[in-house]
Amino acid sequence: MAPTLDIIFAALADPTRRAILHMLLEDDMAVTDVAHPFETSLAAISKHLGVLAAAGLITQEKRGRVKWCKLEPDALRDASIWMQSFGQFEAVNLEAFEKFLEQELAPPTIIAAPETKKGGA
To answer: What is the pTM of this model?
Structure first.
């Protein structure tokens, strides 16, 4: 049975879990390596990993004495398809928006009047 969108989005709602998924984009990781950058207990990270696994976003496999985590990118397919349904809204062109803001927020340029010659001519 595939996880529902509710379970997937609930798993993605937590910033720690999103950070874990981002780390797993690079490669499979041991649970202890996943936990290393976080200022939380190994038990807390294990709970986060359990939520991600329940949502089907990762799989965990024991290799020898070490438990490894692997990203399952296909698990995001249904969520991605659902989000694409909002595609009728045009994506924001961030570069154009940045240029617009630069122009709008730039200090006004003062154009000096041309100097006139003194004396008679």
So the answer is: 0.68
